[in-house]
Protein 1
Amino acid sequence: MASSPVPPSTAHLALPFFDDAHRALARELLPWAAAQSVDERDDRAACRDWVKRLGQGGWLRYCVPASSGGALERLDSRALVLLRETLAFHSPLADFAFAMQGLGSGAITLAGSASQQSNYLGAVAGGDKIAAFALSEPDAGSDVGAMAMQAVSTSDGWRLTGEKTWISNGGIADFYCVFAKTDPNAGSRGITAFVVDANTAGLDTSAHIEVMAPHPLATLRFDGCTVPREAQLGELHGGFKLAMRTLDIFRASVAGAALGMARRALVEAVHHASHRRMFGQMLADFQLTQAKLGEMAALIDSAALLTYRAAWMRDDSEARGAPAAGDLTAAAAMAKMCATENASRVIDMALQMHGGLGVKVGTKVESLYRDIRSLRIYEGATEVQQLIIGKSVLRSQT
Ligand SMILES: Cc1cc2nc3c(=O)[nH]c(=O)nc-3n(C[C@H](O)[C@H](O)[C@H](O)COP(=O)(O)OP(=O)(O)OC[C@H]3O[C@@H](n4cnc5c(N)ncnc54)[C@H](O)[C@@H]3O)c2cc1C
């Protein structure tokens, strides 16, 4: 991981969306993140290393509630956003390792039994167990209800058969929160969640998938994989809702990660433009360059406001004990869509400003260009977010 030429700005911490505890958290994380040096050439080894460091640093305690060894009473969207933004600024892989501990254990936090919570959540917070969230299948990505994997009830438990793919932490996780059909004829109303330990007989996690940026991924094969009855997570046939509630918590934090990458690209662009001499002056002296930097800053700030708003809305609603409402989902969708799309544009502009260096393997903007791409696809592609927002607009105006 390459160190930043200058530390990130902390001006956004003054915004009224945050409490002093959030400001202190972000300020404490900054020097810690900047001081880490992880060899990321092997993404699996690096991810394990990051999870250990994040656990030892106490940062993974923000992925679980206080009742299970977490830092705060409940999962706090603003803390998650700030943590991911700061980590992604320094290393998108560090952000990924952090986020997956939360996403991979989120269903246990929301619906796990007391023994599931005590078996898994403390170990997730300490970085002693690596978590994964297994929802997608080869023929069921955006269309979750089309999943084919089945869980059949046996005399003493469940037998899982089928395939999951694009599973982050696949092959290095200690356990998987897996979603399977328990009523094949009921669409999304026939899905149940299970916790499956990685060493369970009948589970094969060896099919690694290589992608354009460091990101441990695998296809999981369940071949008559038998788990005890206590492995059921949450209500029978309640798996679709549980998966969506889990994703709802983390959607705004994907926007936080995109924001961190975009902020880093802007820092790199300013640094390069201020040091690159051409036609008798610096690249930064050209109005065309200043216009681009201005556009980049505005794209970042607009995404930041939507992201912090979505996180604040969710925390506020949780604090009031209000039932989850459609406006929260639409706000999180807007944040995810705008932050990931804007970050892609910002990073592309930063790369262009670097000229040939921008595409040279090893420069920060080159790796950011690859790192950002999958954020527009996973946890609901941009088109899925557009539909969520569009439906919400129609509901609110008719
Ligand atoms: C790096 C990475 C990590 C991932 N990690 C995980 C994980 O940990 N766990 C997990 O379960 N899954 C994971 N996924 C899977 C991810 O959630 C899916 O890739 C995503 O949901 C899209 O599904 P799909 O790839 O099958 O694309 P499809 O569903 O086939 O969609 C293809 C494209 O169609 C478009 N589209 C989608 N819906 C509509 C629509 N209604 N109208 C018009 N166009 C539409 C979008 O552009 C979309 O990209 C990961 C994926 C990636 C790339």
Protein 2
Amino acid sequence: MVFGNLFKFRSQDMAIDLGTANTVVYVRGQGIVLNEPSVVAIETSNGVKKVKAVGNDAKMMMGKTPDSIEAIRPLRDGVIADIDVAEQMIKHFIKKVHGKRKLLSYPEIVICVPSGSTSVERRAIRDAASNAGASQVFLIEEPMAAAIGADMPVTEPIGSMVVDVGGGTTEVAVLSLRGLAYTTSVRTGGDKMDEAIVSYVRRHHNLLIGETTAERIKKDFGVAMAPADGIGHTIHIKGRDLVNGVPKEISINQGQIAEALGEPIGTIIEGVRIALENTAPELAADIVDQGIVLTGGGALISGLDEALSEETGLPVTVAEDPLACVAIGTGRAMEDEIFRGVLTTA
Ligand SMILES: Nc1ncnc2c1ncn2[C@@H]1O[C@H](COP(=O)(O)OP(=O)(O)OP(=O)(O)O)[C@@H](O)[C@H]1O
Ligand SMILES: [Mg+2]
């Protein structure tokens, strides 16, 4: 019976990738059990704020809420914009994963926090997890989690480079022997790409579109380099005409989308170039052999690997499931003793 209880105890341990765009939860022995947008809808009535919806339900409300409801992304640009709402969100997701199962004992939780979070914010996140029932909370750096999740040789004396293009930030890191030999973070990721599409459409077509529409265009048709014929697919976009205020539809092609995304993608490539310049020669030599691995949702932009490879002259590959890498890596760091050294308590 002791073993039975012990098993139950361990099986409630979880790893959480607290991303600016998505929160992904991994349970020991089960893998990923939850993947939802990091969005919370807050309703204010008679001056009292109440959580109305979290995750998928809240994201569906974005840009469409009445005055009394506000859909908030508590983490933005790789930092925690609203710690209270972030805490409520974490608690909600932890509860959702536990479901109706009664906690026999308290689980251990490993959280991957945005790299830009301050020590005060890290403590607040840790407290939120403790308040939600965790007995012990560990933290892990995002690029380390991404690299473990992408099966990179992080425990060996071999230098490797991971580039995690998330919603808020792009983390560039060189790893070797369970440590981050060099790391840099640029505040450009998927969100900046969405904003670039919004502003391109406004400037060139006098059309106002929402962030959700821009994100959909990016996911379905986004390209890092202009198509061979300069045009590619042509798509129709609906929004509000800025001149006469009425709804209207325009069409743009993938060549124009590549132009719109030029600036954020250029910033990401520049971040990688700076990291390469700052890498110690022995590690740089390894990276020539190992190449660069792309993780995070932004890695799915068509042609980003090619653009980066052209710019750096190095082989670039996209990890198998880029959106899940950080959660998988955080989960493995929790499950496998070999990675224990990468976890911290502060
Ligand atoms: N197919 C796709 N093509 C382009 N971008 C995509 C695609 N799928 C998702 N994305 C983008 O990836 C981003 C989310 O990636 P991810 O979940 O890795 O970010 P995050 O971990 O929440 O953010 P961060 O690491 O910055 O905290 C969003 O901006 C989303 O629009
Ligand atoms: Mg991330």
